[in-house]
Amino acid sequence: MDDFILYFKMGLNHVLDFSAYDHILFLIVLAVVFKETEWKKVLWLVTFFTIGHSLTLALSAYSIVKVPVDVVEFLIPLTIFITAVVNVINTKEIAEKSNKVNLLFSGLFGLIHGLGFSNYFRLMIGQEEDKLMPLIEFALGIELAQIIIVISILLLGYLLKTFARVGNRDWVIVTSSIVIGFAIQMMMERVFW
């Protein structure tokens, strides 16, 4: 039970660590296009991300995949940037088009985000015989943390749209544009060539 709590907390803290806010930024731009009534879709979005993230962690834990850290560290803010830009471009068709695109992004870009933590995770579990249980426990922590973040985004959007009369289109454009600024800064700091 102690191991479960250890890896679960590590997954939880991996996402909720505000000093490593790239994960949070990605979740913001994934979820911002959804309305609060679409919370079930957002939960699927989170699950797709967790699956992608966990898949690359597993491949790394079993030493099947190794990607240079500097490349991955650049690709992570690039995924955030691409998702936010697509949100801005699709503002006229936010409801359907962005939802489908962000669902695809959550799975595919989850693979890249998982690579960002894979080296640390591989060191953390070391030479343990059973790597599957720590992966599952870690993934459950990630899943809960991501649910907390996206529910917070949906709630904040609801409050701003209801009480401050912010339009949905404005909410998506402004939020995504702010995240674009962060992503550009992160990419510039992480250029590897």
Quick structural gist:
By secondary structure, the chain is mainly alpha-helical. It has helices at 2-16, 22-31, 39-61, 69-89, 94-125, 132-163, 168-189.
Written overview of the protein:
The protein has 193 residues and is mainly alpha-helical. The protein has one domain (2-189). It is built from seven helices and no strands. α2 packs across α6 (132-163). The mean pLDDT is 89.
Which descriptors would you attach to this protein?
193 residues; globular; mainly alpha
SSE topology sketch:
Elements: H1 2-16, H2 22-31, H3 39-61, H4 69-89, H5 94-125, H6 132-163, H7 168-189
Helix pairs in contact: 1-6, 2-4, 2-6, 2-7, 3-5, 3-6, 4-5, 4-7
Shape: globular
Q: Please report the distance between the alpha carbons of the first and last residues.
A: 45 Å
What's the total count of β strands?
A: 0
Return the structural class.
Answer: mainly alpha
Radius of gyration using CA atoms only: 17 Å
Low-confidence regions: none
Order of helices and strands: HHHHHHH
Query: Roughly how much helix do the residues carry, as a percent range?
Result: over 70%
**Count of spatially separate domains:** 1
Given the structure, what is the number of helices?
Answer: 7
Let me know the largest β-sheet.
Answer: none
Portion in strands:
under 5%
